[in-house]
Amino acid sequence: MSRYLSTILLAALALGASLPAAAQWKGKGEVGIVFARGNADTDTANVKLDTSREVDRWKHAFGVAALRATNAGVKTAERYGAAWQSDYKLTERSFWFGGLRYEQDEFSGFDYQASASTGYGYKFVDTERTKFSGQAGVGYRRLKLTPTGETQGDAIFRGDLKFEHALTATTKILDTFVVEAGANNTFVSNVLALQVKMSDKFALSVGLDVRHNTDPPAGLQNTDTLTTVNLVYAF
C-alpha cells in the first residue's frame, strides 16, 4: 500500500473512532481496499464515514468519502467529498433542511462542485423494517472546470430520495438518489448497496455507485460507475 493510501485510511479510521467519545453521534465507517500484482499492478482504496446526531427537534448529519486508484503507478481515479445537513422536525414525518455539499473529482472534468441548498423533506414510510424519505429544495452551486480552470455559478434544484429495507434480520438493502439540476450542469448520483451483518458492529457491503453529469467538458464521458466491496463498522 502506498504511503498516500495509508494516510487516507488511518485518518478516516481515527476520525470514526474519536466521534463517539466526543459527542452522542451514531453512524458507520466503511473501508474497501483492493491490490493486484503480477500481470496487473493496481491499487484501489475507498473510505466512507457517515454520522448523525439528534438534539430535540434537530438532526445533524455529516459524511466524508475518499477514493483513489492507480494502475501501474499512474493515477486513474481520485475523488474526495464531504456533506453536511441539518433537519428541523416540523411534524413526526416532515422536516425542513439546510445542507452543504462539496466534491473534488478531477477525472469527472470538474475540479470541484460545491453547493448550498434548503428545502422541505417528508418521511413516506418510517417503520422498523422499512424507511423511505424524500426531500426537495433550491440552492446555489459553484463549479470549476478542470481543463480551463473556469469557475461558474448557478441556481439549482436539489432533490433526494433515500430507501432502506431489511430483507432479513441480518441483510438489508439501501439506496440513495441525489440530483442537483442547474443551468451549467445537472449532477445525478445513485448509490445502491446490499449490506450483510457479520456481528453487532461489523457488516459486509456490496455496492454500485453511478454518477452522471449532463454537461462535462468536451472529450469526457457523462457517466462513471464504481462497484465496491467494503467492510462496515457501526458505532
Short description:
With 235 residues, the protein is mostly beta strands. The chain contains one helix and twelve strands; from the N terminus they run αββββββββββββ.
What's the structural blueprint in terms of helices and strands?
Elements: H1 3-22, E1 26-36, E2 42-55, E3 58-71, E4 74-89, E5 94-105, E6 110-126, E7 130-145, E8 151-166, E9 171-182, E10 186-197, E11 202-213, E12 223-234
Antiparallel strand pairs: 1-2, 1-12, 2-3, 3-4, 4-5, 5-6, 6-7, 7-8, 8-9, 9-10, 10-11, 11-12
What do you see in this structure?
The chain starts with a helix and ends with a strand. The protein has one helix at 3-22; strands at 26-36, 42-55, 58-71, 74-89, 94-105, 110-126, 130-145, 151-166, 171-182, 186-197, 202-213, 223-234. It is globular and about 45 Å long. It folds into two domains: 1-51 and 59-78, no CATH class; 90-228, Porin (Beta Barrel), CATH 2.40.160. Helices cover 9% and strands 70% of the residues. Strands 1-2-3-4-5-6-7-8-9-10-11-12 form a twelve-stranded antiparallel beta barrel. With 235 residues, it is mainly β. The protein is built from one helix and twelve strands.
